Structure to design on (214 residues):
Protein backbone atom coordinates (compact mmCIF):
# COMPACT_ATOMS: atom_id res chain seq x y z
CA UNK A 1 0.00 0.00 0.00
CA UNK A 2 1.25 3.49 -0.80
CA UNK A 3 1.64 5.90 2.07
CA UNK A 4 -0.44 9.10 2.16
CA UNK A 5 1.17 11.81 0.08
CA UNK A 6 2.69 9.25 -2.34
CA UNK A 7 -0.37 8.93 -4.54
CA UNK A 8 0.17 9.35 -8.27
CA UNK A 9 -0.86 12.57 -10.00
CA UNK A 10 -3.99 11.03 -11.61
CA UNK A 11 -5.16 9.90 -8.15
CA UNK A 12 -4.42 13.34 -6.68
CA UNK A 13 -6.46 14.94 -9.47
CA UNK A 14 -9.46 12.80 -8.49
CA UNK A 15 -9.34 13.57 -4.75
CA UNK A 16 -11.17 16.94 -4.94
CA UNK A 17 -14.00 15.29 -6.86
CA UNK A 18 -14.29 12.58 -4.19
CA UNK A 19 -14.28 15.31 -1.55
CA UNK A 20 -17.04 17.35 -3.20
CA UNK A 21 -19.26 14.33 -3.64
CA UNK A 22 -18.71 13.03 -0.10
CA UNK A 23 -19.50 16.48 1.31
CA UNK A 24 -22.83 16.31 -0.51
CA UNK A 25 -23.49 12.85 0.92
CA UNK A 26 -22.76 14.07 4.45
CA UNK A 27 -25.02 17.09 4.00
CA UNK A 28 -27.78 14.73 2.85
CA UNK A 29 -27.38 12.62 6.00
CA UNK A 30 -25.79 9.62 4.30
CA UNK A 31 -23.23 7.92 6.57
CA UNK A 32 -21.83 5.13 4.39
CA UNK A 33 -21.41 4.26 0.73
CA UNK A 34 -20.04 1.27 -1.19
CA UNK A 35 -17.27 1.46 -3.77
CA UNK A 36 -19.80 0.43 -6.43
CA UNK A 37 -22.22 3.23 -5.52
CA UNK A 38 -19.41 5.76 -5.34
CA UNK A 39 -18.01 4.62 -8.68
CA UNK A 40 -21.42 5.05 -10.34
CA UNK A 41 -21.59 8.65 -9.14
CA UNK A 42 -17.97 9.41 -10.05
CA UNK A 43 -18.11 7.90 -13.51
CA UNK A 44 -15.41 5.31 -12.79
CA UNK A 45 -15.20 1.68 -11.60
CA UNK A 46 -15.41 0.15 -8.13
CA UNK A 47 -11.93 -1.26 -8.64
CA UNK A 48 -10.57 2.21 -9.40
CA UNK A 49 -12.23 3.63 -6.28
CA UNK A 50 -10.67 0.94 -4.12
CA UNK A 51 -7.25 1.47 -5.70
CA UNK A 52 -7.49 5.22 -5.15
CA UNK A 53 -8.43 4.78 -1.50
CA UNK A 54 -5.56 2.33 -0.98
CA UNK A 55 -3.22 5.20 -1.90
CA UNK A 56 -4.47 7.75 0.60
CA UNK A 57 -4.35 6.07 4.00
CA UNK A 58 -6.28 3.89 6.40
CA UNK A 59 -9.49 3.57 4.42
CA UNK A 60 -11.29 0.34 5.25
CA UNK A 61 -14.65 -0.52 3.79
CA UNK A 62 -16.85 -2.96 5.69
CA UNK A 63 -18.51 -5.87 3.91
CA UNK A 64 -22.20 -5.13 3.38
CA UNK A 65 -21.87 -1.59 4.80
CA UNK A 66 -19.29 0.18 2.68
CA UNK A 67 -17.05 3.09 3.52
CA UNK A 68 -17.71 5.56 6.31
CA UNK A 69 -18.43 8.93 4.71
CA UNK A 70 -17.17 10.72 7.84
CA UNK A 71 -13.88 8.79 7.85
CA UNK A 72 -13.27 9.39 4.15
CA UNK A 73 -13.94 13.10 4.55
CA UNK A 74 -11.58 13.31 7.51
CA UNK A 75 -8.77 11.65 5.55
CA UNK A 76 -9.36 13.77 2.45
CA UNK A 77 -9.53 17.01 4.45
CA UNK A 78 -6.18 16.20 6.05
CA UNK A 79 -4.61 15.48 2.65
CA UNK A 80 -6.12 18.45 0.82
CA UNK A 81 -6.06 21.09 3.56
CA UNK A 82 -3.40 19.91 6.00
CA UNK A 83 -3.79 20.77 9.68
CA UNK A 84 -5.96 23.81 9.01
CA UNK A 85 -3.19 26.35 8.44
CA UNK A 86 -3.99 28.18 5.23
CA UNK A 87 -1.19 28.61 2.70
CA UNK A 88 -0.07 32.27 2.40
CA UNK A 89 -0.79 33.29 -1.18
CA UNK A 90 -0.06 36.28 -3.40
CA UNK A 91 -1.79 37.31 -6.62
CA UNK A 92 0.09 38.67 -9.63
CA UNK A 93 -2.19 40.49 -12.08
CA UNK A 94 -5.33 42.32 -10.96
CA UNK A 95 -7.31 42.62 -14.18
CA UNK A 96 -10.73 41.07 -14.69
CA UNK A 97 -9.44 37.52 -14.38
CA UNK A 98 -7.36 38.39 -11.33
CA UNK A 99 -10.35 40.01 -9.65
CA UNK A 100 -12.52 36.95 -10.27
CA UNK A 101 -9.85 34.57 -9.02
CA UNK A 102 -9.21 36.70 -5.92
CA UNK A 103 -12.89 36.48 -4.98
CA UNK A 104 -12.74 32.70 -5.26
CA UNK A 105 -9.63 32.46 -3.07
CA UNK A 106 -11.00 34.75 -0.38
CA UNK A 107 -14.55 33.39 -0.21
CA UNK A 108 -14.11 29.65 -0.74
CA UNK A 109 -12.80 27.42 2.05
CA UNK A 110 -9.92 25.93 0.13
CA UNK A 111 -6.85 26.13 2.35
CA UNK A 112 -5.37 29.37 1.00
CA UNK A 113 -5.05 32.88 2.44
CA UNK A 114 -4.60 35.79 0.05
CA UNK A 115 -2.13 38.16 1.71
CA UNK A 116 -1.14 40.47 -1.17
CA UNK A 117 -1.90 41.44 -4.75
CA UNK A 118 0.46 43.02 -7.29
CA UNK A 119 0.12 44.72 -10.66
CA UNK A 120 2.19 46.89 -13.02
CA UNK A 121 -0.64 49.23 -13.99
CA UNK A 122 -0.44 52.52 -12.12
CA UNK A 123 -4.22 52.95 -12.34
CA UNK A 124 -4.69 49.70 -10.39
CA UNK A 125 -2.08 50.27 -7.69
CA UNK A 126 -3.62 51.48 -4.46
CA UNK A 127 -7.08 50.10 -5.22
CA UNK A 128 -8.51 47.16 -3.31
CA UNK A 129 -9.19 43.68 -4.60
CA UNK A 130 -11.18 41.37 -2.32
CA UNK A 131 -10.18 43.50 0.66
CA UNK A 132 -6.47 43.49 -0.26
CA UNK A 133 -4.64 46.67 -1.34
CA UNK A 134 -3.02 46.30 -4.73
CA UNK A 135 0.73 46.92 -4.61
CA UNK A 136 3.09 47.80 -7.44
CA UNK A 137 5.15 44.86 -8.67
CA UNK A 138 8.29 46.75 -7.63
CA UNK A 139 7.31 46.00 -4.01
CA UNK A 140 7.43 42.25 -4.64
CA UNK A 141 10.88 41.49 -3.23
CA UNK A 142 10.44 43.51 -0.04
CA UNK A 143 7.01 42.02 0.66
CA UNK A 144 8.07 38.42 0.04
CA UNK A 145 11.20 38.71 2.13
CA UNK A 146 9.12 39.96 5.07
CA UNK A 147 5.98 37.82 4.72
CA UNK A 148 7.24 34.56 3.17
CA UNK A 149 4.32 33.61 0.88
CA UNK A 150 4.34 30.02 -0.38
CA UNK A 151 1.96 30.24 -3.34
CA UNK A 152 1.69 32.67 -6.25
CA UNK A 153 -1.38 32.95 -8.47
CA UNK A 154 -0.45 34.20 -11.94
CA UNK A 155 -3.22 36.05 -13.80
CA UNK A 156 -0.91 37.73 -16.31
CA UNK A 157 -0.11 37.21 -20.01
CA UNK A 158 2.61 34.78 -21.07
CA UNK A 159 5.29 37.49 -21.31
CA UNK A 160 4.44 38.75 -17.83
CA UNK A 161 4.66 35.23 -16.40
CA UNK A 162 8.06 34.71 -17.98
CA UNK A 163 9.34 37.95 -16.49
CA UNK A 164 8.07 37.48 -12.94
CA UNK A 165 8.24 33.72 -12.37
CA UNK A 166 12.01 33.59 -11.88
CA UNK A 167 11.81 36.39 -9.33
CA UNK A 168 9.12 34.51 -7.46
CA UNK A 169 11.06 31.24 -7.40
CA UNK A 170 14.13 33.09 -6.11
CA UNK A 171 11.93 34.61 -3.38
CA UNK A 172 10.90 31.20 -2.11
CA UNK A 173 7.57 30.59 -3.85
CA UNK A 174 6.94 26.85 -3.73
CA UNK A 175 3.78 26.55 -5.83
CA UNK A 176 2.01 28.33 -8.67
CA UNK A 177 -1.64 28.43 -9.67
CA UNK A 178 -0.90 29.50 -13.20
CA UNK A 179 -3.50 31.08 -15.49
CA UNK A 180 -0.93 32.34 -17.99
CA UNK A 181 -0.04 30.36 -21.12
CA UNK A 182 3.56 29.94 -19.95
CA UNK A 183 4.26 26.41 -18.69
CA UNK A 184 6.29 27.02 -15.55
CA UNK A 185 6.97 23.33 -14.96
CA UNK A 186 9.48 23.35 -17.85
CA UNK A 187 11.99 25.93 -16.54
CA UNK A 188 11.23 25.17 -12.86
CA UNK A 189 10.78 21.38 -12.54
CA UNK A 190 11.21 21.44 -8.75
CA UNK A 191 8.33 23.87 -8.18
CA UNK A 192 4.75 22.59 -7.85
CA UNK A 193 2.67 24.01 -10.70
CA UNK A 194 -1.04 23.75 -11.41
CA UNK A 195 -1.62 25.11 -14.92
CA UNK A 196 -5.12 26.35 -15.72
CA UNK A 197 -5.77 26.75 -19.45
CA UNK A 198 -9.29 28.11 -19.88
CA UNK A 199 -8.88 28.24 -23.65
CA UNK A 200 -7.84 24.59 -23.80
CA UNK A 201 -10.92 23.62 -21.84
CA UNK A 202 -13.19 25.52 -24.22
CA UNK A 203 -11.50 23.97 -27.27
CA UNK A 204 -11.92 20.50 -25.76
CA UNK A 205 -15.60 21.21 -25.18
CA UNK A 206 -15.99 22.40 -28.77
CA UNK A 207 -14.28 19.31 -30.15
CA UNK A 208 -16.50 16.99 -28.12
CA UNK A 209 -19.66 18.81 -29.16
CA UNK A 210 -18.76 18.75 -32.83
CA UNK A 211 -17.58 15.14 -32.90
CA UNK A 212 -19.65 13.25 -30.34
CA UNK A 213 -21.96 11.73 -33.00
CA UNK A 214 -19.14 10.53 -35.25
Amino acid sequence: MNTPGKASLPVIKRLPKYYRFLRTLKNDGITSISSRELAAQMGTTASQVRQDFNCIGDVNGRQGIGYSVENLLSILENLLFGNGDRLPTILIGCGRLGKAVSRFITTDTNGYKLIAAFDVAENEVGKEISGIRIRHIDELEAFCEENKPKVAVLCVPRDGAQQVSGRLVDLGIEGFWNFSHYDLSVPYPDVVVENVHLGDSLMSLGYRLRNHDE
Notes: The helical segments are 9-27, 35-42, 46-54, 69-81, 96-107, 140-147, 158-170, 198-211. The beta strands are 32-33, 67-68, 87-92, 112-119, 128-129, 132-136, 151-154, 175-178, 192-195. The mean pLDDT is 89. The CA atoms of residues 174 and 190 lie 9 Å apart.
